[in-house]
Amino acid sequence: MSIGGYMQLVCCPSHPDADLIEDHRAGDQICSECGLVVGDRVIDVGSEWRTFSNEKANSDPSRVGSAENPLFNGSDLSTLVGPAVSASGASAHPSTTAGGGNAADMIKYQNRRALSNSDRTLLNAFREIGGMADKINLGQAITDRANYLFKQVHDGRSLKGRSNDAIASASLYIACRQEGVPRTFKEICAVSRISKKEIGRCFKLILRALETSVELITTGDFMSRFCANLNLPNTVMKAATCIAKKAVETDIVPGRSPISVAAAAIYMASQASECKKSQKEIGDVAGVAEVTIRQSYKLLYQKARELFPEGFHFVTPIEQLPQFKSMTWSPVCCFMHSHSLCTYPYCRHLNTATLLAFSNN
């Protein structure tokens, strides 16, 4: 309590260091040593769970509303008019007012006036972020950070012309990166209504506008999740992690994204074990095309003996692992490719002048 501007601590006079027990029903503070009531009229700051209806099981006992949200301009303390409830606890039918208007329409109009345009935009964006986070099982800390990022962008008005859904999706992607649980653009795009290209644009604009940064993603950020989704054992996950880590450290896969390197490492480790996974299965989980996995796998296969961890049990020897040979370049192949007749997927493309030069020769 406060007396004369100074804070006075409530404690037992006989046992100043003893813990106090709060009796919320009686509103008392009791000494745990001697049982002396040292304080009364304790205010319960929790939710009010009483209800003054007919105590029906289907009635909502909470009458105090949701928790205060500091991200809203009005601290979320505005009053909204709810629908009429009958004595049985069910929603009553909308009635007609004395002026001839529908009560439901009047409630809807009143609630629109209670929220400002800014708060309404924030509310819709927070619902969108919460829905996307629930679909990919993200925690509340990530959702709160994404909401805060969207609030900063909205107040700064630095992304005019961009849709709120795109900003919300990019904010969720940045929040995942900053919280140490990164998700790929394709994963965010799968639960959003925005294209991957637009999310990527908003991602760069938000980083520039807020002058913030995110940690670089590594192969280890995705390895455990990808292997768990593929139902791979722990030994394969450890081998894939070692392969990807050594490949990055020795610069075997220059210019390759960590996601594609992780997918190729999982493919190599699974093919050497008894739990073999195809490129399509890994590509569906990692969101990487099969050709991308093959290109990274070719680079890893050249140093396969150096990449596998010591003591790894090979079910399939390295010599018998899948090998993909690149098609050799030929002017006939490219001439057929320009006419949509080529069957080689890895041939180069030549311009018309080069094709004419080869045809003349």
Automatic annotation (TrEMBL):
Keywords: Initiation factor, Metal-binding, Nucleus, Protein biosynthesis, Repeat, Transcription, Transcription regulation, Zinc, Zinc-finger. GO terms for cellular component: nucleus; transcription preinitiation complex. InterPro entries: Cyclin-like_dom, Cyclin-like_sf, TFIIB, TFIIB_CS, TFIIB_cyclin, Znf_TFIIB. SUPFAM superfamilies: Cyclin-like (SSF47954), Zinc beta-ribbon (SSF57783). Residues 7-39 form the TFIIB-type domain. GO terms for biological process: transcription initiation at RNA polymerase II promoter; transcription preinitiation complex assembly. It is found in: Nucleus. GO terms for molecular function: RNA polymerase II general transcription initiation factor activity; TBP-class protein binding; translation initiation factor activity; zinc ion binding. SMART domains: CYCLIN (SM00385). Pfam families: TFIIB, Zn_Ribbon_TF. General factor that plays a major role in the activation of eukaryotic genes transcribed by RNA polymerase II. Belongs to the TFIIB family. This is Transcription initiation factor IIB.
